[in-house]
Amino acid sequence: MYTSSSRSPPQSRSTSPWYSRFPDLDPVEYLSRNWPPAILEIVDPELQRIAFLPRNTRSPLESTDVKHNGRAGYLGEGLLTALISDFLYTEFVEYSDDDLMAMRQALLDPVAISNLCQRVGLQSYLPGSPSDRRPDDHTLAMLFEAYIGGVYHDRGPSCYQDLREWFHFLIRPYAMMCKNNYDTYVDSHRSARDPGYSPSSSSRHGRGHASGHPDYALEDPRMIARPGTAAPGLGMYATASALDARGSRARGDYIKDLKEYCEKRRYKNLVYHDEDNGQNGDFIRWWSKVYIDGSFVGESTDWGNTKKEARAQASKVALNFLRNRP
């Protein structure tokens, strides 16, 4: 009926905020002709292979490959942080460090990095058929990080300026959208009683922070960017009407949406297979896989704090897979 892929649950990592989900971008005229830029090639075939290892496949990867791919991702993550910090610092000279950190956090979100990955078509370099690839934000974000790390490793420190110019051109429309939404947020919080409002008034410097996001200066991180599509052809993500108090899509919605999707297509057996991390009490975390009529269609992208959260993640992945399969 349909195929997907399975992998072992990753090590537990913190859940990312949603607020950098970007709609389809229409770059301004001077960008549109050459944007997005062509990718920078990784010349060394072994480094290229390591960078484009498929993290979600039916066949498990060799432990050495996983290690080297993880190291490339580690390097790429550090480079992306530096490149985005550099862009924001250079372009937005009128903003404070709190402002810049707020925008940087949004642009480093896995959904934004996944979008960048798809804009330049990196997913097409993954081995295997398109049906084996799931539009999973975390997987594609890790692919982009490993690619950036691979480019730098392949070309050496002397390539940093070329990498910087390439990435700054790619990130510019995202950064401008992020800035505009940030400005709108700040303007909406100004009032006659507090005409000088700025996010710095609730900054990390001992005066409070966004609930659940201690490094984020804004009171409401939902306002940093509008929700919309992750990338052309990959289906809709959360809309404002479906957001819960933390700014993410209500966890039950994806489970409900998947159930309705199956009912409309008369699929009979929707089954979740849940497993925990072997811990107890407050330390227990959950991982879930989804099967429809006996076929695997998706799994969690990270450990969930509750079984429902894990199932919601898996349901979202399954919906994206089912809606976008060839």
Explain the overall architecture:
The chain has 326 residues and is mainly α. It folds into two domains: 88 residues, Double Stranded RNA Binding Domain (2-Layer Sandwich); 219 residues, Ribonuclease III domain (Ribonuclease iii, N-terminal Endonuclease Domain, Chain A), CATH 1.10.1520.10. Helix content is 44%, strand content 6%. A three-stranded antiparallel beta sheet has the order 1-2-3, covered by helices on one side. α3 crosses α7 and α5 packs across α6. InterPro entries: dsRBD_dom, RNase_III_dom, RNase_III_sf.
Per-chain topology:
Elements: H1 29-32, H2 45-51, H3 63-91, H4 97-107, H5 110-119, H6 137-155, H7 160-189, H8 251-264, E1 270-276, E2 286-292, E3 295-299, H9 307-324
Antiparallel strand pairs: 1-2, 2-3
Helix pairs in contact: 2-6, 3-4, 3-6, 3-7, 4-7, 5-6, 8-9
CATH homologous superfamily identity of the largest domain: Ribonuclease III domain
Which percent bin holds the helix content? 40-55%
- Ranges with pLDDT <50 over ≥5 residues? 1-30, 200-252
Give the count of structural domains: 2
Helical stretch tally: 9
Question: Could you tell me the strand content as a percent range?
Answer: 5-15%
Quaternary assembly: single chain
Q: And the CATH topology of the largest domain?
A: Ribonuclease iii, N-terminal Endonuclease Domain, Chain A
CATH architecture annotation name of the largest domain:
Orthogonal Bundle
The first-level CATH class of the largest domain is given as Mainly Alpha
What do the pLDDT scores average to?
72
The total strand number stands at 3
Measured on Cα atoms, how large is the radius of gyration?
20 Å
Organism: Dactylellina haptotyla (strain CBS 200.50) (Nematode-trapping fungus)
Pfam family, one: dsrm
Protein name: RNase III domain-containing protein
GO molecular function, one term: ribonuclease III activity
